[in-house]
Design a protein that fits this description.
Elements: H1 15-41, H2 43-74, H3 77-80, H4 83-90, H5 93-99, H6 101-105, H7 107-110, H8 123-132, H9 139-166, H10 176-201, H11 214-237, H12 243-246, H13 249-280, H14 283-292, H15 297-316, H16 319-322, H17 325-347, H18 359-381, H19 394-397
């Protein structure tokens, strides 16, 4: 059964989408020029900042894909109202595949295992790398695995996008079972691929350190980033139709509850990793925390504990706060910043024993974000903001049994 859109409701994206895309592109170009200059004069700082920025924006794209697949398996108006936002973010994966090229070009500057072993002064690390660089951590293996990861992510994005676009026209087929057939295995594939990608791209920055839960730490950070980003975008769209008529307080409430859930799981994974490693007290494992609890990094870690978990957790316990899009968006913006800071705390101490922020750490992620956002908003404006002929569209298009006006104050 197909659902016809409400006659008076134009589902086209508002003009602000195109305007933001253009402004984002300008920001990307300007900051990109500065980033290129930094790449020539300060290549070490550039590549470190590039990996940081890349992981930030990759997290939004892949996290959006994961949430979209969760929605296809569970249903619900909360996911339908942001489905096109999640889809537009997911469809930036081809761009991210291209943006991964500088990481490949800088592999010898980023990863100690990619450097000649005779240049490594630490004998124990050199002996350790002598074995692992013959089997897993090789430059060719690094590239081949990255190709596999992006191939899987692009395939999932292609299938989910293809069937979603079909539901924009009358007489569209019911693709619900197709979505479920892809989403189930897709979530498993996402979990495996992002775990191995996290090992290759982030954990191998310090090849002497091992954590079996590290992939899950990165994964939960991605879905939290994606939900926060979706809240920010829906708030931007809320000032115009059709989002102003589709977004109901109960949907916003659900988005706030997802944010709360992801924050709690993020804290649980991080605390579990810390507890197991600290209790084991093994030299090959505690180096990760020894480096991050000294030289000023300990204050960054404490800031993250308080402002990434404790305070947001307390705020999101409020039902009225979660139902108010004008309030929830500010917490979403803050959490996106905290996701950047968390990745900064994970990546940067591998290169600097004392807390240091460079110009590249600020400019390069913004440059990547400018191009990513321009492509995202282009994707968002290319399709209606709701797949009107999807059988589940009625969850958004039909008025609720108890009409509510989104809270404004």
């Amino acid at each position: 059964m197909s659902t016809a859109p409400v006659k008076h409701l134009d589902l086209t994206a508002p003009p602000v989408v195109k305007a933001i895309a253009q402004r984002s592109l300008i920001v990307g170009v300007v900051c990109g020029i500065v980033a290129i200059i930094l790449a020539f004069f300060r290549p070490e700082q550039f590549y470190r900042a590039y990996l940081l920025g890349f992981m930030c924006w990759l997290g939004v794209a892949l996290g959006s894909m994961a949430i979209l697949m969760i929605r296809h398996l569970t249903g619900g108006g909360w996911g339908m109202v942001i489905r096109r936002i999640l889809g537009a973010a997911m469809r930036t994966v081809p761009l991210l595949a291209l943006l991964f090229i500088p990481v490949i070009l800088g592999v010898h500057k980023l990863y100690i295992w990619a450097q000649p072993l005779d240049q490594i002064s630490d004998k124990h690390l050199r002996d350790h790398l002598e074995d692992i660089t013959k089997t897993y951590l090789t430059t060719n293996g690094f590239i081949i695995r990255a190709v596999i990861y992006f191939a899987i992510w692009n395939l999932l994005s292609f299938l989910l996008s293809k069937w979603s676009k079909q539901t924009d026209r009358a007489g569209a087929p019911d693709n619900t079972e197709r979505f479920k057939a892809v989403a189930g295995p897709g979530l498993i594939l996402y979990g495996f691929t992002i775990s191995f990608a996290a090992i290759d791209w982030v954990m191998s920055l310090d090849p002497s350190w091992i954590s079996t839960i590290f992939g899950l730490v990165i994964l939960i950070g991605e879905v939290l980033s994606a939900m926060c980003f979706a809240v920010v975008v829906e708030r931007i769209l809320f000032d115009s139709k059709p989002m102003s008529e589709m977004l109901r307080p109960d949907f916003v409430h659900d988005h706030g509850k997802w944010m709360l859930t992801f924050i709690m799981v993020w804290a649980y994974f991080n605390y579990s990793q810390w507890l197991i490693i600290w209790a084991g007290n093994l030299p090959a494992e505690i180096t990760y925390y020894l480096r991050r609890l000294n030289g000023g990094w300990e204050y960054v870690g404490l800031f993250i504990v308080i402002f990434h978990f404790a305070i947001p957790f307390g705020i999101l316990l409020s039902r009225s706060f979660k139902r108010n899009i004008r309030k929830l968006v500010w917490l979403a913006v803050w959490l996106l910043f905290m996701r950047y800071l968390d990745l900064f705390w994970i990546i940067e101490p591998n290169f600097s024993k004392t807390f240091t922020v460079t110009v590249a750490d600020l400019i390069v992620p913004v440059a990547i974000g400018g191009f990513w956002l321009a492509y995202f908003f282009h994707n968002l404006g290319s399709l209606p903001l709701l797949p009107a002929y999807d059988p589940s569209a009625g969850e958004v298009l039909e008025p609720p049994h108890h009409p509510e006006v989104p809270e404004q104050a």
